[in-house]
Design the sequence.
């Protein structure tokens, strides 16, 4: 067994390690799991940069020197060349990874009150195009007509109610997954929602109360009896509004599989799959209709059809933009009633 004495860690790395330990010990409502992951990744990257590549001489001294413009510039240069990755890969780090490195440095600097001049951020990717009103209306009418004729499968009944909430409130998949039946008014006139915490928000977003459209109320009236039928056989009461419709097989950490019954709460990923399936159904049936009738051309009275994105986010952002424009048209009067100090 070797008895060689390990050289002491650089004071700057020791200070960085202490700061990261303190930040990662914070509860998740103050520092999210993703941020903690980026902080640990930054710590490891700086250790590799100093021990293998050097950085500027002063970077060994203290945290301020480690986060100095000269040191950070060399560090990011190594990152851009893929020389300090911790995942075993050798390719250059992406712009998203570089942005995460810089944001992690900002968090450490703010926590330790260390001077830090943020370097220029790589450009963020342009947001995906939002879903145009024509496409959103087609999706609504497509499912609404089937539900009203009582020929729709449970999936379409649930989706129409979920889609109505999105059109009325611009709710995200995380927001939908966190909704309870108790968030609905007894007469289904309003719904309470709480947006997910964004970035480094110290406090959770306020609870909002939104008025629901008549179409959404009708859709909920069709969905809620279905939900009750699915959750009634379960041993424990389910408070969540959106639940699964079918058995779901999942694998446990040990490798064995279990089958969950219908009626369990949908998680954000499950909500996203609901919208993916609905978009695919609309796109398939629209393609068949266009082949039968001849595709509408630009400039005609029938707007040109563009396929529905299979992700919820472009749809949510389109609704959010329209709600904001509506608020501005009303002179800044909010459509949403913000309820502060109430539990979700």
Sequence:
């Amino acid at each position: 067994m070797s008895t060689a004495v390990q050289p002491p860690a650089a004071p700057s790395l020791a200070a960085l390690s202490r700061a990261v330990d303190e930040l990662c010990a914070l509860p998740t409502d103050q520092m999210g799991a993703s941020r903690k992951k980026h902080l640990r990744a930054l710590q490891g990257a700086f250790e590799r940069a100093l021990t293998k590549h050097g950085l500027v001489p002063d970077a060994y001294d203290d945290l301020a020197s480690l986060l100095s413009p000269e040191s950070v510039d060399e560090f990011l240069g190594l990152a851009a060349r893929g020389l300090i990755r911790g995942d075993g890969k050798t390719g250059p780090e992406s712009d998203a990874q570089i942005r995460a490195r810089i944001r992690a440095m900002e968090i450490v600097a703010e926590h330790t009150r260390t001077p830090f001049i943020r370097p220029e951020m790589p450009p963020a990717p342009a947001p995906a195009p939002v879903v145009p009103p024509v496409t959103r209306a087609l999706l609504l009418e497509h499912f609404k007509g089937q539900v009203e004729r009582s020929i729709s499968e449970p999936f379409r009944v649930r989706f129409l109610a979920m889609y109505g909430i999105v059109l009325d409130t611009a709710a995200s998949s995380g927001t939908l997954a966190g909704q309870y039946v108790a968030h609905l008014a007894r007469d289904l006139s309003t719904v309470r929602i709480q947006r997910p915490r964004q970035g480094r928000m110290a406090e959770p977003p306020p609870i909002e109360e939104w008025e629901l459209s008549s179409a959404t109320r009708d859709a909920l009236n069709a969905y809620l009896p279905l939900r009750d039928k699915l959750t009634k056989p379960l041993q424990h009461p389910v408070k969540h509004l959106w639940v699964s419709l079918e058995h779901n097989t999942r694998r446990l950490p040990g490798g064995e599989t279990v089958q969950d019954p219908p009626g369990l709460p949908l998680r954000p990923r499950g909500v996203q799959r609901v919208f993916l399936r609905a978009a695919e159904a609309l796109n398939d049936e629209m393609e068949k209709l266009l082949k039968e009738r001849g595709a509408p051309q630009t400039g005609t009275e029938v707007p040109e059809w563009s396929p529905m994105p299979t992700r919820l986010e472009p749809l949510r952002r389109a609704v959010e933009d329209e709600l904001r424009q509506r608020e501005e048209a009303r002179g800044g009067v909010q459509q949403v009633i913000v309820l502060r100090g109430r539990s979700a």
Notes: Strands lie at 190-193, 207-211, 248-251, 257-260, 337-339. Residues 132 and 318 are 7 Å apart (CA to CA).
